[in-house]
Write a structure and sequence with these properties.
It is a single chain. By secondary structure, the protein is an all-alpha fold. It has 2 domains: about 20-225 and about 335-360, Citrate Synthase, domain 1 (Orthogonal Bundle); about 230-330, Cytochrome p450-Terp, domain 2, CATH 1.10.230. The chain contains 16 helices and 3 strands. The longest helix has 28 residues, at about 120-145. Bound molecules: coenzyme A (COA).
Amino acid sequence: MSSEYLPGLAGVPATKSNISSIDGEQGILAYRGYEIKELAEKSNFEETALLLLDGHLPSQAELDDFDCQLRAERRVKYKIRSIMKNLPPSGHPMEMLQTAVASLGMFYGGEEVLSDGISGNDIDYIHRMSVKIISRMATIVAMWEHIRNGYDAYEPRDDLSHAANFLYMLHGKEPDPLAVKIMDACLVLHAEHTINASTFAALVCSSTLASPFLVIAAAIGTLAGPLHGGANQRVVQMLEEIGRPENAKAWVEKQLAARKVVWGMGHREYKTKDPRATVLQKLMMEWGESQGTLSKQFETALALEEVCEEVLGPKGVYPNVDYYSGILYTEMGIAPDQFTPIFAVSRVAGWLAHWREQLSDNRIFRPTQIYTGEDIRSYVDIAQR
Ligand code: COA
């Protein structure tokens, strides 16, 4: 057995999975073998989530049934609302989301069915909890926008798709059809991405047979950092700081001279442009055309990408998924600190697929370490120290 230490476990296989795959040289991401660019164009979030969970493209009847279940599970218990109302409005929504999801678990016991490997009953439980968590997380994130501003949240509607209902609850008005199309594509694009930090956290938690609510809470906490899901919020702050397309070159030079990163650029897996960034860029163009103008932020991002291609391209550093998503969300009137929670609203489908896969062949994670501390020594009485 190899005992070589690789920081960040870079390149170390931690599991076997048939959920998604990345070809970092060619810039291909596929869910269950279907390329993301095709899914973003032809599928929707409901179908993609079911594909991730069950492993195959659903029949019309299976999809209708799943869609119906999601719509029926949108309401959140008033006790969860009360918890949310008592949280500080200035706190980060990812902390709120982790709290709310972990608290939800207190209402839905039943994880004891998972203690003996997966059987028919377990699949039923896994499916029911997956529907509940996917559906409720969208409600919770949308509700928070109103609760933190001191208002009552909008009630979910069961006549709208997952993306449309989310936008309706977030903005409290009938959503624009193009905004729904874009939000739906964003949810598809972010739903799964092999074994990244948050999915690994979900796997470790799953392997202890903790409840799915705690599994997802662990993943939410891990997604929150700026080196993972939090980068899209940083991208928008960065573009604000740059201000105009003509400032991009000087800004990058200054940033790199100070050995600082360009947010939304670079990826451990991709050595070319992230295929999700390509789709998001096209959607941004479509949005700009519908508005009759490209936003200043988007124009600055295009100029910055050009500069970065010259200086970072040779290192295999290109735009990742976070580069354009924040700009799109800003255009849709979404607050920057809600970008990462929206990422979680989508990624929960992938996390739950990994939860199910982990349980199907479970062994608790217990890696080893290389001890770098003191040799065994005698305790020193406090008076002698
Ligand atoms: N800005 C500037 N330089 C970058 C960079 C960025 N965003 N990303 C990578 N580089 C540089 C590295 O410093 C390294 O330079 P060196 O060879 O001179 O030391 C080189 O490019 C290769 O980096 P690489 O090994 O491919 O990156 P990584 O796998 O260690 O890190 C990230 C990957 C995602 C952590 C890193 O690209 C990053 O911090 N990006 C910004 C944060 C972000 O957008 N995160 C969201 C990811 S979806």
